[in-house]
Amino acid sequence: MTRNAFTETLYDAYGQRFAIDEVYFEHRTDHQHLMIFHNAKFGRVMALDGVIQTTERDEFFYHEMMAHVPLFAHGNARRVLIIGGGDGGLLREVLKHRSVTHVTQVEIDASVVEMAKTWLPGHSKGAFDDPRFNLVIDDGAAFVANCQEQFDVIMIDSTDPIGPGEVLFTQQFYGHCDRCLAEGGVMVNQNGVPFMQLDEVRKTSQAFRSLFADWHFYGVAVPTYIGGLMTLGWASQTPALRQQSIEVLTRRFEDAAIETRYYTPAVHGGAFALPRFVEEAIGL
Amino acid sequence: MNEALGVATPVLLEPAGPDWKALVAQYGSPLLVLDCDRVRMQYRKLTQALPGVRLHYAIKALPNETMVATLAEEGAAFDIATSGEIAMLEKLFIDAADTIHTHPIKRDQDIKDALRYGCTTFVADNIDELDKLVPYRHRVAVLIRASFPNPAARVDLSRKFGCAIGELPALLAAADARGLHVKGLSFHVGSQVDGSHRHVRAIEACLPFLRERRPGALARMTVLDIGGGFPANYDGSVEDIDAFCAPIREALQAVPEHVEVIAEPGRYLAAPAMTCLTTVVGRAKRGDRMWYYLDDGVYGSFSGQIFDHTHYPLIPLDAEGEPQASVLAGPTCDSVDVIAEDFPVGEMAIGALIVAPMMGAYTAASASEFNSLPKTRVIALAPPASMDEADNVLRLA
Q1: How far is CA B85 from CA A213, B27, B225, B365, in A?
Q2: Which is catalytic among the residues A58, A87, A152, A157?
Q3: Do A50 and B93 touch (CB under 8 A)?
Q4: Residue B242 belongs to what domain range?
Q5: Distance (Å, rounded) from C-alpha B389 to C-alpha A61?
Q6: Of B255, B270, B285, at which residue does a domain stop?
Q7: Class of A5-55 per CATH?
Q8: DSSP H or E stretch at residue B282
Q9: B96-107: pLDDT as tens digits
Q10: B121 touches chain A (CB under 8 A)
Q11: For the purposes of burial, counting CB atoms within 10 Å of the CB of A211, is it exposed (0-12), middle (13-18) or buried (19 or more)?
């Protein structure tokens, strides 16, 4: 069967369609159905269970904001834990920080990493070979439940809360993450597009409220996560992390000499300003 | 129920049909033979009888991969009721956009499994079910199932499911209030119904709702699912499908142009496409009657006699002499395992073959493994090319 188009099945009433110029890879695992194809506008596109996960051309929006906002806010993060993120894009951005000495990444499915190395090499750009990197194949929720280590930054780069990613959206999971956060640490997570899925930020805010001294969300508008602004969750026991001045962020950004295409210290500061309907949903 | 049992109706076997004995010699007995060309023919006939109506095969009738692949190749869409059916469609790379989930009662996990697969249209018939869909309201669309009770159907599907038409306005308002997108209406007048007048009445009852614009609705309705019920011709008494559908076609003329009409045939597509071959494995004279014991019975492929209230044509290939009222019994130890009580048949020896056509729908689907007897093997004639590699399909020379 030849397919010349991929229509996302995330919403019944609305969706995005990609011309398929070439299918690179299609695979079904016990957990997931994965497909990577080429699209003239977005380059290599990865879809999981009918939903766009990442594309070559716009992945930097999300990965830069998930990595650099917490890392520059922290200023001296050494140990980082990534849950999910099997494509390696987030890892690539994290490893740009010279302060980072160790990254543990927990991915539920080894084949996702192998597939990404082969078919999405631009995401990891060799990051999987970095000596600071440690890959664990495990369920993210099970890993943090048993984890005795601590991390300065925890990043939850998950799929949607339907399917295997569901456990990564529970209060219990966030509680375990909190236990694994070092003093002065921060956790960030993926919370969907609130205009389309307002319940996600609502639920996460309720869980964060009972666990963390400081929590909020920040925005990034990823073209292929359709529906406008996407929110990333922010949770920490150290309120000052979220209040870093643009001057401090700018100094850290310049000292790090990291090249970015989306992230700037000004974007960082502004990203925490949320639309009113999101503020209302999270009870602010 | 004795009066209906064991009616041996002459059934036209294709003059150039398969050599049943050779199939049993090669693949063993009992055996179910699925003829994919007959599946294609049934699909095309119903498509022609209902032009413009998208057919969603009700997988439950015969949840067989070759059957599904054959219909997919013909352009059919699919009606899903369970996560197990989803797993089969995923395995066959069926596009989720071609599916709707029609079980009116779902667990949260069922909804999640369907969404993960990419099926975003669901059926609901009461407020609790609407509430289950609320967490996913931004992703899903809902068909509200109305009920039109039909005691004359062989299987009355409006007793267990469906919202009475009088309660429909309140249910629609409840869906609107919950922010759910009601995409349309569905109904099931029953399976193997006695005529299409019930479809017609149900369509007519739906029309005002399809025409109205409810204040507070996210959109006007754009789908009418007329369900199934299209009868299979088990005994030669059923009218031709084109004649059966003529009143439906006429009733559909009144459906507003913006409404897409879909149907969920199961039995009509599956029933004539599969034939059961079963062998006499024992016999005894009890009183004045011959009892013949077969290697398939009501706990197996003939389970439709119990669950689907259907009796199948039985054609003994190896009977000799004057027909005598005899008993055909299944292979299990249970006395209920009798296929026919007063079956007129000449003398059959052990090893004699009985051919039972019209055994595609609700037969293998509801077979059990009682007595640790395995379910009857299914082989396919003329399977689609895409099934060449499937290990459950045998490509016959």
Answers
A1: 46, 27, 20, 12
A2: A157
A3: no
A4: 37-270
A5: 42
A6: B270
A7: mainly beta
A8: strand B274-286
A9: 989 999 999 999
A10: yes
A11: middle
